[in-house]
Amino acid sequence: MARVGWAQVGAGGHVARRTSAWWERLVAAREGRAPQRLVHAVLEVAVDGAVRSVDMAPTWGRSPGARRVVVTGPVGSRLLAWCPLFRYELRVVDAPAPPGHVLHVSDELRLPGGVLDDLLLVPPLTWGRDEARVGDMWTSNSVVSWLMERHGVTSVGPPAGHRAPGWDAGRRVARR
């Protein structure tokens, strides 16, 4: 069993919420459309009775806890990746708490039990960049959509009126 939940970007902090809203206004103006609310995809997978979630976050400032780091990658620029401030880690977290400010949760999705093992195959692309040249930047949303696309789940997407930056990048990279 698996589900994708959608949480508001920056739900837990003023800085992320304000900078994301500012960034979305700029992107919307460049694309000639109205700004939308930004959301973050949270994938939860039940394996052998335990619920685990896929998380992408900075490598710094995190306590070890019950998590398994699967992939690390650069943030913003590969040239800065030597510094922990400019690296992310993709990890599997045990016993997740529900994401704050959940807007929508998908129906149960049929994914194989080994879907989390596929995280080892996620390309460590630079967060916030379009290194794959697919017209969308790589983000944590890209990882979730990459997994969904690899397993034939195409019915999941951001809630109406919301945008998940990077969602299309994951789908397009997975199709290659």
Describe the protein:
- The longest helix has 18 residues, at 14-31.
- The protein has helices at residues 14-31, 140-150, 167-175, and strands at residues 2-8, 37-47, 50-58, 67-74, 87-94, 102-105, 162-163.
- Helix 2 runs parallel beside helix 3 (167-175).
- With 176 residues, it is α+β, with helices and mostly antiparallel strands.
- The mean pLDDT is 83.
- The chain contains three helices and seven strands; from the N terminus they run βαβββββαβα.
Task: Give keywords.
28% strand; alpha+beta; 7-stranded mixed beta sheet; 176 residues; globular; 7 strands
At a glance:
The chain is an alpha+beta fold. The chain is built from 3 helices and 7 strands, in the order βαβββββαβα. The protein is globular, with a radius of gyration of 16 Å.
Number of strands: 7
What is the string of SSEs from the N terminus onward? EHEEEEEHEH
Shape: globular
Low-confidence stretches: none
Q: Kindly state the mean pLDDT as a whole number?
A: 83
Number of domains as seen in the coordinates: 1
Q: Termini, distance in Å?
A: 26 Å
Derived from helix and strand composition plus strand pairing, the structural class reads alpha+beta
DSSP helix fraction: 10-25%
